[in-house]
Structure formats: C-alpha cells, structure tokens
Amino acid sequence: MGPTAMMAGALLTVLTWMGPPAAVTAQSGTFADVCLEVVSEGLSDADWALVVEEVSSVVASRPALFPRAQVSASPAVIEGAGIASLATPSARLDIHSGHAGASIVGASTACLAPDQEWTARFGREFLEASAEQMLADAPTTPGIDSDVVLEWHPDEARVRTLLTFAGPLDIPNGRCWVDDVLSVDASAGIATASAQHGLETSPFAEGACGRFFDHLPDGGAGQQAVTLLPFEIDLDAGRILRFVATEVVVEENAVLLAGTLELR
Predict the structure, then answer these.
(1) What's the number of CA atoms in the CB half-sphere (13 Å) around residue 96?
(2) What is the model's pLDDT at position 212?
C-alpha cells in the first residue's frame, strides 16, 4: 500500500443524551471505535462534563487517530422513570473516529466491564485504520511500497505493529515492528506497554525502519491505545478524578482497559 492523502474534515464534537445505559453481562455487541464508561455514583453532571471536555481535547489533538471524530456522551445523572432498575448507574462516552472501515456512528452497547468502576475499550478496526493513516502521513522513499498491519495476540496480551516494505525487484526490502506487551503497573495504577522494536531488513535498508519508528512518537498501536485517555481530570473546587488502572486485556476485537475511580 502506497502513501495516500490524509483524510480531510474538521473535528466535530457532538454531545447528546443517549438514554439510560444497559447493564453489561458480557463484552459483545456493537461498539464505537473508542468507548469510556464509568460508574457515575458520586459524579455530578458538571464533573462528567469536565471529563468529556478533557477527552474531547485529547481527541482533537490526535488527527491521525481521529480524522473526523464525533464524541457522544450520556449525562452522569439520569433522572426520571427507570433509574431504580439500573443495577449500576453509569455514564458513557462514545468516540467514532471517522476512519473509513472503522465503526459507523450509531448506538453503542455499554462497555463497562463487570465488577469495574470504569472501562475504556479501543476497537481493533479503529487501531488498524489509525495505523494505516499514520503510514499514509509518514515520510516515505519514492519507489518503495509499504504496508502496515496489526498482529493480534490475545493470549500474550500483545499487539504488534508491523511494517513491511519493498522496492523495485524487491530491493531493498524488509520488515520492522513494535511489540506492545500490555500490563498494569499496580504501584502507579497505570497501564504500560513494552514497546520493543525489531527489524529484519536487507543490507542498507535500516533507514526505512528508523523513519517508521521515528514517526511513531506515541508508540505502537497497543501503547497508543492504553495511553490515549487522560488518567487524571481536574474538577472544580480543587478536586481530582483519577482513573486507576487495574486490568488490561487484549480481546479478539479490542484492547480493554479497566479499573477503579478515585475522587479526591
């Protein structure tokens, strides 16, 4: 796949009430490219609005990941009939990236994992489309065909971002990759990625891998996922909402990050 033009379009932030979230019993259904759901007990609508504002700011700063983003958020406090039937009142934020081939805008299954106070889910198709966009935006050598794929290894909690390239008559050629083994630093309450680089190239082709690595300032796809969202949000009156990570999982179709909330 050769370079392609950057997908155009201004960032669009849309705040809509999507109604009471459904209780989650399994991670299946239709999801946005990225979803964040939190147990809303103890959070006001004003608190949640600050969370949405901070996440929307991050989204706006990452156009390769979100070329035409739409951000939809439910309120933190849901009033009216039906609230008593909610086992765990929660607030949800859905982000649709605008990538061709990633999810379309529409209703999303609630993504809060069982027994967790918050969950962020990063779809595989979204991460694959983002990797392709970053390659399209990267500086390349004329005459060199490049392709990037994500290799998914749920059993190892590992995502490999792999670049393959070749010139005329397959000279030069090679492969280079970033391996992200995902885990949680329990002492800090944050998710981490190993971000190990590797390459197999023909002689004098190492420069292509160097440019590839240099164009990934935020790491491979796995690292970009688990470090994308802010882990501390400044609320009013000097309060801080902290997303403490306790679990990170590579599922068949997503990277899932979850944990507990600290409000102080």
Answers:
(1) 20
(2) 80
Q: DSSP secondary structure string, 1-35?
A: ----PPPP-----------SPPPPSSS-S---SEE
CA dihedral 135, 139, 142, 146 (to 10 degrees): -20
pLDDT of residue 134 exceeding 80, the answer is yes
Helix or strand or coil: residue 92?
strand
User: Which residues have a Cβ under 8 Å from the Cβ of 248 and sit 6 or more positions away?
Assistant: 157, 182, 183, 184, 191, 226, 255, 256, 257, 258
Tokens representing 186?
A: 């329990």
Our measurement of the distance from residue 51's CA atom to the centroid of its chain's CA atoms, rounded to an integer in Å, reads 16
Q: How many Cβ atoms sit within 10 Å of the Cβ of residue 16? A: 11
Cis upstream peptide for 172 (omega within 30°): yes
Backbone angles phi and psi of 45, in degrees to 5: -60, -35
The answer to whether residue 145 scores a pLDDT higher than 60 is: yes
Beta bridge partners of 73: 93
Cβ–Cβ under 8 Å, residues 48 and 92: no
pLDDT tens digits along 208-242: 788 788 877 778 999 999 999 999 999 999 999 99
Measured between alpha carbons, how far is 32 from 103 in angstroms, rounded to an integer? 6
